Amino acid sequence: MIRTANGLPVVVFITILTLSALYAPQPLLPLLASEFQISRDMAASLTTIAFLPLCIAPLLYGRILSAFTPRQLLRGAIPVLAVTELLFPLCSTVWALFAVRLLQGLMIPAILTAMMTYVSTECAPGEIRRTMGIYIASTILGGLLGRTMSGTIATLLGWHYSFYLLGGSLLLGFLLLGLLAPGSPPQGVRPKGQILTILRDKGARRTYITVFCMFFVFAAIMNYLPFRVAELDAAATEMRIGFMYSGYLLGIVSALNAVRLTSLLGGTSRTMMLGLAGLIVALIGMLVPNTTPLFFFMFPFCGAMFLVHSVASGHLNSLGLENRGMVNGLYVAFYYGGGMLGSSLPGPIYQHFGWPAFISLLAVLTGGGILAASGLQSPHTKTDQ
Known about the structure:
By secondary structure, this protein is mostly helical. Helices cover 76% and strands 0% of the residues. It has a single domain (7-176, 196-373), classed as Up-down Bundle (Growth Hormone, Chain: A), CATH 1.20.1250. α1 (7-23) runs antiparallel to α6, α10 (202-232) packs parallel to α16 (324-342) and α14 packs antiparallel against α15 (291-317).
């Protein structure tokens, strides 16, 4: 675990709020499309535009972490994210919404890259995989709470109040940063050539490709789920759409048990391949044109995805590669690069060819992830560091 007693709860709290900020608009997309009189695909772009910096900025932040500690980066990014949450409901045009979401997309990878680096450098020897599992579980809980709470608050009070609550909570998170350890002094490593050096490592490269394919598929389902629910049930409220994401609960269970499951299933590669195969099974179940099976198949879908995510991040940080700020920055970049494309590119397929064609495309991408994961090997070390 993290060496300072108060460190892990602060990491969990801030991570939950950060992922909530990223995904809070998602169950509200049909409502926002109606209120701002925009198309379904344009509303879906409110997620895509936040993902855009997420697949580029982590590389910059990985370099910044060669000169600053994770806590220093967090002190700059968290208050800016808090202000953008307070500004979001005050926007009067869709272009203002896009501008705020773009700024959020710049701050979120700073927080996530700093958090992953803090966890991997400050936890006790031999505990990286287990602590990273707790970190991944907190990202899952943030994604769930961001969606369910925004949908519930929108139905009961109005959609604006979700973002006021998030903004205030992030300001509290900023105040709690003093409980984190200062972190290891920056090593001042020269960034030139680091990206290519990391990508030359076969294990890292295959891990990045796997998570890219995985999150492409996951983001596509998460972003177009509200429109599928509205298509199947025109009377569905924002609260009901928000609770369609309840499958995240199984994701928390799989993330917290990722180390145990990896041991039971026979290693990193096999676990990730089986998880991705589970995604394909869940996708097939989502072809049933009814919201009830769609709701239930979200559980194995989320459980499988977050098992792969947790195993992949733990595996990457156990490879012994130098400059973990850049290693984790690349991970976040590939992860959300898949999310950016997945939240937008499949939309025209869904619109013009229907849900079955949409699901078929995602199944093919999942197969690509299985191929990448098939070549992974566990690092030949006795500990995680």
